[in-house]
Amino acid sequence: MNQRVKDIIARLYRPPRQGRQLIALSRADAERLPLVAGAAMISISAPEKAPAQVREYKNLLRLSFADVDFLSESLSVKSAVKIAAAMTKEDARQILAFVEALPPSVHTLLVHCEGGFSRSCGVVTALHQLYGYDVEEARLVQANQSVVKVLLEVAQATQGKKILRPREDK
């Protein structure tokens, strides 16, 4: 078991005193985690890959969308081809509905994608900004900004949600 998985397990057993915590992680790390009471998961797979082999959490949302940051000024040819499979407003609505429906007993929301750096961090960043949940901010530096933007726009349009913690540009 690698150190990251050990750290995540430790956080699962030490939830915040108030509110929830969000943890972005890789598919490989998510597949290694035990099923822990009080945890829920958003599992994001690439369209060309099979769903992740994660435990069957009581609260589990499975999505599939490509890792494309359409806001990037230097969109590669490879990314341009995948843009049709990028995160949609419907994906964002599903994420927001899932989070809103989580029971109070859920203290940790695990969000994974393939590498644990882009899509999952984009979801975690947006949910942190919307709900103020605890996050590992240092891990969010490579967050997919298109994912953040779509989630925030859908939250504001459908729920009238205000951003609690605006992103701080450095």
Folded structure, characterized:
By secondary structure, the chain is an alpha/beta fold. The chain has 6 helices and 4 strands, in the order H-E-H-E-E-H-H-E-H-H. The chain has a 4-stranded parallel β-sheet with strand order 1-4-2-3. The longest helix has 15 residues, at about 145-160. The mean pLDDT is about 90.
Secondary-structure-derived class: alpha/beta
Shape from CA axes? Answer: globular
Characterize the largest beta sheet: strand count, sense, and whether it forms a barrel: 4 strands, parallel
How many helical stretches?
6
Unreliable segments (pLDDT under 50, ≥5 consecutive)?
Answer: none
Number of structural domains: 1
Fill in the CATH topology. Answer: Protein-Tyrosine Phosphatase, Chain A
Question: Nutshell version of this structure?
Answer:
The chain has 170 residues and is an alpha/beta fold. Helices cover 37% and strands 14% of the residues.
Q: What would the keywords be for this entry?
A:
170 residues; 4 strands; alpha/beta; 6 helices; Protein-Tyrosine Phosphatase, Chain A; four-stranded parallel β-sheet
Layout of strands and helices, then pairs:
Layout: H1 3-12, E1 21-26, H2 27-32, E2 39-45, E3 60-64, H3 77-82, H4 89-101, E4 108-113, H5 119-131, H6 145-159
Parallel strand pairs: 1-4, 2-3, 2-4
